[in-house]
């Protein structure tokens, strides 16, 4: 654990609103929390350097230190079962699809009271299916099937405690696969003292000991409990219309897929609640392949995929709250925590008072993208990287070393499945000023939160007043939030969008708004959020695109809202249609330059490069050493770039690592739109005038803003952005 860290309940607040800070500190004495404002969060000594304005005179408090625990691993918890009495015969069974072999037991279902040493568990481990029953005053009796289960194969597993026959049986049968298997069952004597009852909650996917342990990795479907000794458990089925004889409880996971509740179809209605957000809307044992959407065939999606590294809300107690003062300008702020020589800076944004604007320029902080990358472990923090972190005084912690906070939607779970949820209700190490992402040979190697301060610093230096809102604000309030602004600016990588943030950008432009898209690979993935699960996003990496992992076939629809996931392009909204350009090529974190194009002399666009005499633009910068690089977007009429759009400059000279995005390729020679693939690795700096007075200026490159500060902010990239913002700011 990091000695001093925390998170906030929200990432933005307006004057008069409160932000709650949740802190864990292992320091002996108290820690101090003080306010600061962020101007520039790039520690590279070759650039402008860190600019953080201390505002401790406005807010500074001391709080006693306390460590707050964080437990990873998902399961369902049925508290309503604590009062259930199960004295007679008992059958416990479920359908499972194990995904991770390990040396220890993974619990399918349990009812266990650790303090009293009482109850039962059904688990799978190296020795196969295993039952454990408590014995008063003695060690529990255990019985294992002795045959290990194959990974990623469906089985029904069970134990049967048959009081009349005085036997305990454990067994399994494979439900799928080429070779039809016979059920495998092992029997042992059941002592009459064996206690099958414990006044404890039932857990599905873990055991209480006294915290949840022995987490299940894989899918579980139709877990059930019978108050009879099933004679042929291999034939059991949980049919909502025809429940099995003696059913005490049976959880139908196909009900309520959008939320955290699990529904019991048994007579006692022992409903439960999911902890740490396992994945729903996944294919079950009955999935036939004839339906791809869980809403159309819910019983084919009656499984839940649990992981021992799932995390949703860390659930830490609030240490203190900060109420944004009425006179605090909109902007990027920090709460700086300090104790025992440790410093941790928790970012948040102050947005303008609701219904008011303080400036005519608005910056949208790409908080959904920051969240998608939250705690992205890249495995790149080698000795040279750490040396630079130390030399520059960069943020010292790296997700490579801290799996305990959960990982990002760019990582996989321990069982190899892709992580499709990311919560901001936990410490997020990548969301910190001074955080380095890459060991950048020619620049700083920043991305996301810190990289976007290249723009904020430039705006401040140019004397351009701006307001800040976040993706979540735009999601909640739509185009009405953007409409009052003459100019709206994105950050370097506005990649993840809900249908509402997407609509808000489109609505703003349709209403005559002027959007400056200052990044690359923007408006790319569709995400889902949920009104009942604040602070979490869901992404299904479906079908195609540049992807960190691949969603399983049949699992392309979001659990949280039932919509089809994947690329916005595969949802009928290519980025070119919205912002003029869209993802076209990607390579290493290297920046190249743009070359002026004939469009720059078009009378409608000549003002953009006014004062720029050079043909080569942006061959410098703190992000990869050039303004055009890493992830680049092109204009393409076939994908919806507006008619009459003008490309004023295009990038070239990208290194051999760059590839054309897969969704554009039909073969090594042919692209979907007919353009030669070798030509498609480029960023198009594009200007488009829209009907209704709206306009778009898009740079099509993630590294663009890294070039703004070059030569004390006097350079052609800075000049171009200044020209665009001045022009866009003029009254319509
Ligand atoms: Fe990205």
Number of strands: 43
Bound molecules: fe (ii) ion
- Helix proportion range: under 10%
How confident overall, as mean pLDDT?
Answer: 96
- Rounded to the nearest angstrom, the radius of gyration is 28 Å
Number of helices: 9
Characterize the overall form.
elongated
SSE class: mainly beta
What does this structure look like?
By secondary structure, the chain is mainly beta. Helix content is 10%, strand content 32%. The chain is built from 9 helices and 43 strands. It has a 16-stranded antiparallel sheet that branches. Strands 28, 30, 31, 33, 37, 38, 39, 40, 41, 42 and 43 form an 11-stranded mixed sheet that branches. Strands 2, 4, 5, 6, 26 and 27 form a 6-stranded mixed sheet that branches. A hairpin with a 2-residue loop joins strand 10 (118-125) and strand 11 (128-135). Helix 5 (471-477) packs across helix 7. 56% of the residues are buried. The mean pLDDT is 96. Fe (ii) ion binds at residues 493, 495, 521.
